Amino acid sequence: MQGLFEDRKVLITGAGNGIGAAIAEHFAQLGATVALIDFNSDLLVAKHQEMVDKGYSVRSFCTDISNYEACQAAYEYFYNEIRFIDTLVNNAGISPKHQGHAHKIWQLCPEEWQRVIDVNLNGSFNFIRILVPEMIKHKFGKIINTSSVAANAYLPVVACHYSATKAAIIGLTRHLAGELGIHNIHVNSIAPGRIETPMVLEVGNQVNQSVIDDTPLGRLGSPIEVAKVVEFLASNGSNFVTGQVIDIAGGWLMR
């Protein structure tokens, strides 16, 4: 419904393409002002212009979310432009591949391990840490962190650093839900399975088909299906929901 999020301000990391771009587009269609973050300037500029051409209210800032000072600079820009950001979608994440395959632990270099930790986990911490004081001041906030089904089951297509960070995101989510609930700040997590994005498609049809074969719904998910779950968690319809993890995986992993 257009206008459902009118007067809402939503910051999305990793918004240049894939799931993040779909979330940004969806919230803009619902009337929100969206703030886009991405490390890839080409993707970010293209998405920003596409949304401007559609008449959406959008701001963007290219930065490395693993750097706290860079995140602070992005926040200051957005705050000057649109003021209070009431919703944070920590979507950005990386899952390095080598000729289409993830490294086993004995192949991993410490630099790659640290980079994945810095982006997937520290990047989420950075924007939460920066935005929460203003959310406390306004006595309202919605934080949606992106985990993965890889946090709860062995997924051979990813490396151990990815699974470790996505499991940590769940722990972070649940702790903060307890810590921030008294301030009317809701913290939840989504755990996508195989979603049809450039990052997923780059591993090839054989790998994805094996996942499809093990998925009760018999297909990959679409980015807009993820965006609609994020919409629920950001909406007033979820005001009594916090500390939860919602799988978006077609039944691939049933806890």
UniProtKB/TrEMBL annotation:
Signal peptide: none annotated. PROSITE patterns: ADH_SHORT. InterPro entries: NAD(P)-bd_dom_sf, Sc_DH/Rdtase_CS, SDR, SDR_fam. This is 3-oxoacyl-[acyl-carrier-protein] reductase. Belongs to the short-chain dehydrogenases/reductases (SDR) family. It comes from Acinetobacter soli NIPH 2899. Pfam families: adh_short_C2.
